[in-house]
Amino acid sequence: FPSHDRAAGDESCYAIGFFTYKKNKDRGDYWMFTEAVARILSRDFGVRFHWGKHFPLEYEEIKHLYPEIEKFKSICREVDPEGSFQNDFTRRVFGV
After folding, report:
1. 8 secondary structure, DSSP code
2. Which pLDDT tens digit goes with each residue over 16-65?
3. Alpha-carbon distance 65 to 94, whole Å?
4. Is residue 65 within 8 Å of 45, Cβ to Cβ?
5. How far is CA 71 from the centre of its chain?
6. 15 vs 87: CA distance, rounded Å
7. Biggest alpha carbon distance in the chain?
8. How far apart are CA 64 and CA 80, in angstroms?
């Protein structure tokens, strides 16, 4: 793994999870809580979040966490110039 990969090497790694069993229409307080926690943890501690779970952050909030994100975006544009494989999530989070 590259040296900037926080999951590699001898450093301690941690995982935390937040769950709710509320129905979608009742989750407003849960979404507000998870968004606040995500912003604080990424900004103050450089935490990176699971892409396949609830991901409330946007490109401007995460780009500093991924040193090669511009290279990734370039590859995306090269292999998918029409944006066929993009959606609202990828546009919001990757800024493509």
Report:
1. S
2. 888 888 777 788 888 899 899 999 999 998 888 888 778 889 999 999 99
3. 12
4. no
5. 17
6. 27
7. 43
8. 24
